[in-house]
From TrEMBL:
UniProt KW keywords: Hydrolase
EC annotation from Swiss-Prot or TrEMBL: 3.1.1.31
Native species: Cellulomonas triticagri
GO terms for biological process, alphabetical: carbohydrate metabolic process; pentose-phosphate shunt
Location of the Glucosamine/galactosamine-6-phosphate isomerase domain: 17-247
GO molecular function: 6-phosphogluconolactonase activity
Function description: Hydrolysis of 6-phosphogluconolactone to 6-phosphogluconate.
UniProt record similarity statement: Belongs to the glucosamine/galactosamine-6-phosphate isomerase family. 6-phosphogluconolactonase subfamily.
Tagged with keyword Hydrolase: yes
Metabolic or biological pathway: Carbohydrate degradation; pentose phosphate pathway; D-ribulose 5-phosphate from D-glucose 6-phosphate (oxidative stage): step 2/3
Protein name: 6-phosphogluconolactonase
Catalytic activity: 6-phospho-D-glucono-1,5-lactone + H2O = 6-phospho-D-gluconate + H(+)
């Protein structure tokens, strides 16, 4: 596992606190969508679960500037999902629907929302691997010629205190999974234990990767990733976009950077 993954160098932007971080990330996302839509359509965005990720979506919903975006030209995807039944309140999809997608109403066509399949044995989705395979097919259907996944315009990732991003946890096999766009995850240390995740190959195909992290409990992992700790120790090290890698953080989360 390389300690210096290829991709765009990181830009670290520090915000005063988690509330400002979520508001500023929402503003940044809205502005980016407007800019992207002035040049091309559709635009593909990957959402993240987690506190900052969902608070950011709620801030997008609350912003009058959301009307500047043509949501019919925006496709929403997920970096990972908790493998639970449809509508479970712990699913990242459910939380994103509650925070933003519901508020967008008819402006965002239902066919633009690409959720990872929920646990549904009757429909053939009995394991995280089933859901991962279904998502791989969905990604392929929207991939440019010669690719297996879309080159996401913006891919957002929360980060756990252990340095995980998406559902790629330290020391877990999925961190090193290659050759497939998605992976089923068993034994996640963060509940629930069963999850589905994009692989690093898919994450690193994105044009822009934005890591969002707030709070003192994230400080050791932020310091570790920014000092290029091995990806299997601190997975967030591996989060890079092809055109830009942004670390959108609060002051508490960068408190230990450079301390080692
Ligand atoms: O499904 C999930 O749990 C995630 O997508 C996960 O990767 C999350 O983004 C981080 O754990 C950060 O979450 P917090 O911001 O809540 O710490």
């Amino acid at each position: 596992m390389t300690t210096t993954p290829e991709g765009a160098p990181r830009t670290v932007l520090v915000h005063p606190d988690a509330t400002v971080l979520a508001e500023a990330t929402a503003a940044r996302l809205l502005t980016r969508l407007v800019d992207l839509q002035s040049a091309a359509s559709p635009v593909h965005v990957v959402l993240t679960g987690g506190t900052v990720g969902i608070t950011t979506l709620a801030a997008v919903a609350a912003s009058p500037a959301r009307a500047a975006v043509d949501w019919s030209g925006v496709h929403l995807w997920w970096g990972d999902e908790r493998f639970l039944p449809d509508g479970d309140p712990d699913r990242n999809e459910t939380q994103a629907r509650d925070a933003l997608i519901g508020a967008l109403g008819d402006a965002l066509p239902a066919t633009n929302v690409h959720a990872m399949r929920a646990l549904d044995p009757a429909a053939g989705i009995a394991t995280p691997e089933d859901s991962a395979a279904a998502y791989a097919a969905e990604l392929a259907a929207f991939a440019p010629e010669g690719a297996s996944v879309p080159a996401f315009d913006v891919l957002m990732l929360g980060m756990g205190p252990d340095g995980h991003v998406a559902s790629l946890f330290p020391g877990h096999e999925a961190v090193g999974t290659t050759g497939v766009p998605t992976v089923g995850v068993h034994g996640s240390p963060k509940p629930p234990p069963l999850r589905v995740s994009l692989t690093f190959e898919t994450i690193r195909a994105a044009r822009e990767v934005w890591v969002v992290a707030a709070g003192a409990e994230k400080a050791p992992a932020v310091a570790s990733a920014l000092s290029d700790a091995p990806v299997d120790v601190t997975p967030a090290t591996g989060a890079r976009g092809t055109a830009a890698t942004l670390w959108l953080v609060d002051a508490a989360a960068v408190a230990e950077v450079g301390a080692a």
